[in-house]
User: Fold this.
Amino acid sequence: MNEQAIALVTGANRGLGLEVCRQLGARGYTVLLSGRDPARTQAASAELAKEGIVIHPLALDTSNDDSVRAAVERITQQWGRLDVLVNNAGGNFDTDHLTSTVSMDYVRETLEMNLIGAWRVTQALLPLLRKSQHPRIVNVSSGAGAFESPIGFGLQKMGGVVPAYSVSKTALTALTVKLATEFKDSGILINAVCPGWTATYPGAEAQGARPVADGAAGIVWAATLPDDGPSGGFFRDGQRLPW
Ligand SMILES: NC(=O)c1ccc[n+]([C@@H]2O[C@H](COP(=O)([O-])OP(=O)(O)OC[C@H]3O[C@@H](n4cnc5c(N)ncnc54)[C@H](OP(=O)(O)O)[C@@H]3O)[C@@H](O)[C@H]2O)c1
Assistant:
C-alpha cells in the first residue's frame, strides 16, 4: 500500500486541473492526473514529472461509464484506495446563449459535463475513498451558479446569458450539500469551491482574470483540509460563500 496520500483530479490535462495536480504534487501527494484524451493526459503528466512530482496519467472520461469503470479498476489494482477526489472537469460557459432559447441538447450536454460526470465519478470512487483515513472530495463549482454572489458572477447578475453553465453549477453545489449530508460524521469532507475568474484561456489575465495558481490554491485548500474541517460548504479562497 502506498504510504503517500493519493489524489485524483479530473479534467487535469490543462487549466485549473493541471495546476491543482502541480500544487498537490508539491505537497507530496501521489497525483493521478486524469483526462479524456490519453495523449494530452500523458503529455501533461510528463510536464509535471519534470518538476519532480509523483504523477500517473489516468484515462478518464467523466461522461463515459466504461471509462470510469476502467479507471476505478486501475486504482483498485495499483493503490487499493483513494484519499482525494477533485471533480474539476467542466466547461460550456455559454455567454452566447439565452435562457429562453438555449437548445435542450446543449443544456443536456452541459449538465452531463458539469453535474452528472462529477456525480458518476463520485459514486464509482466512494468505495475507494472509504478506505482512506482522511477522505476529501472537492467539486469545482462556480459563483455563476450562486443565488447570492457578493462579487463577480451570480444567477441574478448576468441577465439571461450563461444559462446552461450557471444552472449546472447550482446543481453541482446542491449535489455537494446532498452528499455531505449523507456522509455527515463519516470522516469524508465534501465541499464545493469556486476558483474565482481564472485565466485559463488566452487573453483572460489582461481582462482581469486571476492567475491560474491563485484559482487553484482554493481548490487545494479544500482537498487538504484537516479532519476537523468543514463539509457541505461552498468556498472561494478558503472563505465560505453564500449561495
Ligand atoms: N476558469 C474560470 O474562470 C472558472 C471559474 C469558475 C469555475 N471554473 C470551473 O473550473 C473547472 C476547470 O476550469 P478551467 O478554466 O481550467 O477549464 P478548461 O481549461 O476549459 O479545462 C476544462 C477541463 O475539463 C476537461 N473535461 C471536460 N469534459 C470532460 C470529460 N467528459 N471528461 C474528462 N475531462 C473533461 C477538459 O478536457 P479536454 O482538454 O479534453 O477538453 C479540460 O481538461 C471547470 O469545472 C470550470 O467550470 C472555472
The longest strand covers residues 30-35.
